[in-house]
Each structure stands twice: as C-alpha cells, then as structure tokens.
Design a protein that fits this description.
Helix content is 34%, strand content 18%. By secondary structure, the chain is an alpha/beta fold.
Length: 368
C-alpha cells in the first residue's frame, strides 16, 4: 500500500468531527482516536504529510465539568468546556502519537487570525516548519477566546481554510455517515453521491440541514465548504470516520463498500496561494465596490481582467490599501472579492475616471 500512497498525495488535511471522536455520553472515544492515529502514522510512513483539524475539545470538557445553573450563557459554557477539554484532547493525541515515535503539536487559532495577510502567513509558516520537522499539527479553534461573531461556522470551515493555506492536495472530512446522500440518510432508498464534479455546488436539494449532536455544523455546511475548496484545486473527500481503516483505504485508492464516500473532483486549474486566501476572506471585507454594467461584463468574461477606476460606480465603506472588499454587480449581486490597491478616499476620487492603475488587479481578484 505504501507505494500507492507515495504516488498519489504528498500533503493532506484530515478533519475529524466531534461525532467521530465522542461517545453518546460526550466522553472521548479513545479507541477511535487510537485507530485514527494508527492510520495517520501509516500514511506518514508512506511519505505523506498530514495535518489534523480535530474537533472534540468542547465535548471532552463537557464530560469533565458541570457549570452551575443559570451562571453561563452559550458562549461562556463553550469557553469553559474548551478550556478544560483542549488540554485533555491534545494530551491524548500526544500519548497516542508517541507510541509511533511521532511528535504532534497544538495549533490553536481564531477566525480573526485569518483576516490579515500577515497573520495568515505566520500561521502557514508555523505549520510548514512543523511538517518539515516531522511534527503533526493538530489544529483547532481557540474557543476559549472566540466569541459568536468571530467563530468559524464549524471546524469544516477551518479545515477548508487550512487546506487552502497549506496547499494540500486533498482534504478528508471525517463524519459519522458515509458522505452526501441523495435523500434522507435514514431512508434505505437513499444512496451516497460518490462523485461531484466542479460546478455542481448547489446540493441543497439533497442535503439535510440538521446539525450533529456535539458539533456546530451539518452536512450542508460540509458540502458548501467542500465545493469551494475543490473549486480551488484541492480534492475533497467526505467519509465515515468510524469505518475500519478508512483513511488508509481512501488514500490507497481502494474502491469498495468499506470506502464508500463522496469525492469532490478538484478544478483542473488550481488557484494561486494569494487567490486562495482572498477567496476565504469574504467575511473580513471592509467595504464594497459597486461596478458598472460594462465593468461587470468585462470581469465575468472569459478574458482575465482587472477592475479599473472607470468601471466603478460607487464606493461603500472605509478601507485602506490591501484590505479585502466585495465586488458588487449593478443588480446588487456579489460577484467576487478582491484586495484593493488604494484606500477608500483615493478610490472615491478616482471613481469613473479613465487612466490610473487598477483598483483591484486580476492577480488579487477572486470571482464567485
């Protein structure tokens, strides 16, 4: 199997959901954790670099401490459980990896840490050094300091950001079901959609909107994140983390009942590193640039085009040079995001004029 592993992928991100790592009572399923660590160790022995994005800290903390009634709101409870559970979770990973002679390291992050290019690159450099040193990064959101408006949707969103940031060749999202079904997973007539091609991003007619018992996300979130990451050139696999030896079987290219999953086929032309960051930075946009019909036609055409001042009809919000902004079509639709070359005051002065450098250069423009 190792020969097959070495040929297919060099670097992958594996996201392990709360429902994979916890039992029904909220305690950590250490047997499942051990099995997954064994598989990661086998992949690494085959020459693969693995980054783990692991849920389970809040669920682990929930089983250790009981807050006093009416003293904590939802955010406070999450912070408490995470503060207790994060140490328990990484401690167990450390023990399990050590049995294989592998060192793991904890990387705690927040959504805000992805908001500036500087912080983004700092995180990327940290994980790159870890991988170069043979250390497995175990990434999780720092729920102890996150508040509602600054939280990731869930660790699916975080895993997509990490996969894009680290130029992973594949993102494996492990859940407690086999993939995306064409109906209710509880219905015996429903079947797993095994292959989703680029452009097939609207799966809302298939996907249930319910959320998991211990996590914040659901399959609808997973499908949206998966489609976005695949559109950037990274293969995405949604599979059942409780199936025996699932990671090694998937990465070894085996196709049988034991590896039933949903694969999002990656776009043939991967996006550049800077465009990947911009694509995932929409929630950090500082303003809006509204454009004319002709500019909209040019940007959405087949030829690569930058946004020039003459094509701008309105500037909304206050932003500075290198901030992220939304690009808005004449009908009010957002058609993309980009990094601006100038602040909002100067952009307003140049708006509608001929000449001058691009307000958003094509290299820093990501269309929806």
């Amino acid at each position: 199997m190792k020969d097959a592993l070495e040929k297919k992928y060099k670097r992958i991100v594996v996201k392990i959901g709360s429902n994979v790592l916890t039992r029904a009572d909220g305690t950590l399923d250490t047997t499942r954790m051990s099995a997954l660590v064994d598989q990661v160790a086998e992949l690494m022995a085959g020459g693969m670099e693995v980054i783990l994005v692991s849920s389970g800290a809040v669920a682990a903390g929930r089983s250790e401490v009981v807050p006093k009634p009416h003293h904590l709101d939802a955010v406070g409870s999450r912070q408490l459980f995470s503060a207790v559970g994060q140490g328990k979770l990484i401690g167990k990973y450390y023990e399990l990896f050590r049995e294989h002679g592998i060192v793991c390291g904890q990387v705690l992050t927040t959504k805000e840490s992805f908001g500036t290019r500087e912080h983004y690159l700092n995180q990327r450099n940290c994980m790159a050094v870890m991988l170069e040193s043979g250390v497995v990064p175990v990434v999780n959101e720092n729920d102890t300091i996150s508040v509602t408006e600054l939280m990731f949707t869930d660790n699916d969103e975080l895993s997509g950001l990490v996969a894009a940031m680290m130029d992973a060749e594949a993102l494996v999202i492990l859940s407690n079901i086999d993939g995306i079904y064409d109906g209710d997973p509880a219905d015996p007539a429903s079947r797993v959609i095994e292959r989703i091609l680029p452009g097939e991003s609207d799966l809302s007619r298939y996907v249930q909107s319910s959320r998991s018992s211990f996590g914040r996300g659901g399959m609808l979130t997973k499908s949206r994140i998966a489609a976005k990451v695949a559109g950037e050139g990274t293969e995405v696999i949604i599979a059942n983390g409780k199936r025996e030896n699932i990671l090694c079987r998937l990465m070894g290219g085996k196709q049988d009942e034991g590896t039933l999953c949903t694969r999002f086929v990656p776009a043939s032309t991967p996006k550049s590193a800077i465009k990947k960051w911009i694509a995932h930075s929409e929630s950090f946009a500082k303003g809006e640039i509204h454009i004319s019909p002709l500019a909209c036609q040019a940007l959405t055409g087949e030829k690569a085009t930058s946004l020039l001042p003459i094509g701008v009809s309105e500037i909304r919000g206050d932003f500075e040079k290198d901030d992220i902004v939304r690009i808005i079509a004449p009908d009010g639709r957002q058609i993309g995001v980009g990094r601006v070359s100038t602040g909002s005051q100067q952009a307003r002065r140049q708006m509608g004029r001929k000449g001058g450098k691009a307000l958003v250069h094509y290299d820093y423009l990501c269309l929806d």
